[in-house]
Write a structure and sequence with these properties.
Helix content is 78%, strand content 2%. It has 264 residues and is mainly alpha-helical. The chain has a two-stranded antiparallel ribbon with strand order 1-2. α2 packs antiparallel against α6. The chain is rod-shaped.
Length: 264
């Protein structure tokens, strides 16, 4: 006993028949939906590749970063992890810190550090970089959300319009039979079918991508906290006010001693 072979999709010709019987307004609606679908799939393919690369390169970056003791080691070695959002945030903070170490240094026992005001500038740069990376990850998602929300409604508009045209034609012809109405109704319903075919893939892709983007953004926030803490421990002048005053007085007295020939 042989089992029947599965019927290929669209083999029945129902979609072809419905499209042929669709009104010009319905065909226009289908054309709009196909354009939305084209943009939607372009975004899906592009974002999948971007997010895959971001996750892959982020693992390599975090492995390299957590394998160092100095938060500026990767920056000084000029290591790059293109595609990892954390890498961009890291280099933005490192460049800002390096600028202040060179232009606004605080010398403490032979070590070069920065003041709290300079450290605040570094933190602002880090927060700005996180916001920029988050916006970059979310770029294009509006297309998917539009396809999810608008696709079925655009299709429904075409269907309602087609049904309205069908009933108007039946009323004018005074032929209220199933044979007279069926082609028009079929032509109207294809708009809703196409609308759902546009919206369903976009919905699954949107939910997957937005979850991944939120995870990456949370990872960036955690990294910034970790990175800023390491910078503060190693490169920020954390002396108390009393120690700063004492050190300033010592430097002033040493400067006066060396500049006065009688004292020297």
């Amino acid at each position: 006993m042989s089992l029947p072979l599965p019927t290929p999709l669209f083999a029945s010709g129902a979609l072809q028949f419905a499209f042929q019987k669709a009104t010009p307004e319905g065909k226009l609606t289908i054309g709009v939906l196909l354009i939305v679908s084209l943009f939607s799939w372009t975004v899906i393919i592009t974002k999948v590749r971007q997010l895959y690369r971001a996750r892959k390169m982020a693992k390599k970056f975090f492995a390299a970063y957590r394998g160092t003791r100095d938060p500026l080691e990767i920056f000084r070695k000029k290591q790059e992890f293109d595609g990892a959002p954390a890498n961009e945030v890291y280099h933005t903070g490192a460049e800002e810190l390096d600028y202040h170490l060179k232009n606004n240094p605080v010398k403490i026992k032979g070590q070069t550090k920065v003041s709290h005001a300079s450290f605040d500038a570094v933190r602002v740069a880090l927060e700005r970089a996180v916001s920029a990376e988050s916006l970059g990850l979310e770029k294009g998602m509006i297309v998917l959300s539009t396809a999810v929300a608008g696709g079925p409604f655009i299709g429904l508009l075409g269907t309602v319009w087609g049904v309205m045209e069908t009933f108007s034609g039946v009323a004018r012809a005074n032929a209220a039979s199933l044979t007279a109405m069926a082609p028009g109704v079929a032509g109207a319903l294809i708009a809703t079918v196409i609308g759902l075919m546009v919206a369903i893939p976009a919905m699954f892709a949107y939910n997957f991508m937005i979850t991944t983007i939120r995870a990456i953004t949370q990872e960036l926030d955690n990294f910034v906290t970790e990175y800023a803490t390491q910078i503060e421990h190693q490169y920020v002048d954390n002396r108390s006010l009393a120690d700063e005053i004492t050190d300033a007085m010592k430097k002033q007295s040493e400067s006066a001693y060396t500049s006065d020939p009688l004292l020297s």
